[in-house]
Amino acid sequence: MRNRPWDEPVRHVRPHPDDLPWDRPPEPADVDPAVLGALLHRHGWQRRGGAPGRYGRWTPPGPAGGGTSLLVPESRAFPDSDDLLGEALGALARSRTPSAREVLISLAVPSDEVRWWRDTPAGPAGAAPWTADDHLRGAARRTLLAAALATRARAGYYGARHRRSAAVLLDDVLVGPATEGRTLTAFVPVTAGRPLAVRLHQALHAAREAVDYRRATGGMDAFDGAVEAGVSRELTEALAALVRGTEGARVAVAWAPGAGVPEGCAPSAEPVEFSPGDLPALREAAARYLRAEPSVPVTVTGAVVRMRRAGPGGEGTVRLRVLAGADVPHVRVTLGEEDYRIAGHAHLVGLPVRVRGRLERRGGFRTLTGASGVVPVQVDEAERDRLLKSLQENLDFFEEACGEA
After folding, report:
1. 204-248 per-position pLDDT tens digit
2. Containing H/E element for 203?
3. Are residues 324 and 231 located together in one domain of the fold?
4. Does residue 220 share a domain with residue 125?
5. 227 and 368 share a domain?
6. 387 & 282 share domain
7. What is the pLDDT of residues 17-75, one digit of tens each?
8. Does the predicted model carry a pTM greater than 0.85?
9. What is the DSSP string of 75-99?
């Protein structure tokens, strides 16, 4: 065990799940009664009377809901409002109804909700295949990632571009349990994730309209215009994965009641539906986006992390960790003999290189073709030391460069 020096800063530790705010009921003073009522209604709870203008009596969805009820005040106009809210929140925390947990999450972390449904054939006694849950979660994540990519730029095909910054948007998204591989809900915090939810809402409707146009006319033009709304190869592939193996699938975006409806978006939470009959159009669109997205001229600055060539002379392949110039983490470049030698020397002295070329869509925009003009780039001492340390850890990849020095 290593002893920590007394003056070493304390390392930040991720909070334990029991310490997170959504793991306990919110305080009554922090809850808007109107928001609680809207969330109960959204999640299938039924209002069954109550004193008009003062409180409502709510029961959970399903046949088992008859024995449980909540008294929820309509406002804070009466002295007992906080008491009723406290009792209602405590009852939700104790409830075994899945929707109660979802209501508490949305109260603790005001969120737009994204819900997926897959209509899959039921097995014996309603059982679901072992892989159904993984399939649903995988398709749902791909859907969210496609929307996150569209918040960074508009493109028919992203490949490896913008992946890191888009993935950051998903860090704060909460997810509920999948129900027998058929239903899943994600909670997208309004403060950090509203652009993601808006883009997904617009892209889903645009994809639905483009598929309808393709099925009605045979034309694919609508998919070209849908790129501006956030439709891409990544989204069409995600929707195809969601639908595959089902009798139909749906996705709905519901806005956080306390945050209002975003400008330009429909207030309704009606789901957007896709069926197995849509799969040919979705697959054709995915292939079209891949073909149509052009290669991109770039000037990349990157640190050499791998070098390889067949013999002691001639051209070789270099892998760069991108520092600037392209929204991908790494690129692969084939260099002529002189440029290859320059790249090797630059790395040996702890310097990145700058190179011009075209970022090719083939392989996900990970390859730089037509590379030329390789030059070392000056960096500060801290960065140079870090690059030299990287060299020491990866000496086996630089034997050729050392031999040519």
Report:
1. 999 999 999 999 999 999 999 999 999 999 999 999 999 999 999
2. helix 190-217
3. no
4. yes
5. no
6. no
7. 444 444 566 888 888 999 999 999 998 898 887 777 788 889 888 765 556 788 888 88
8. no
9. SS-STTHHHHHHHHHHHHHH---HH
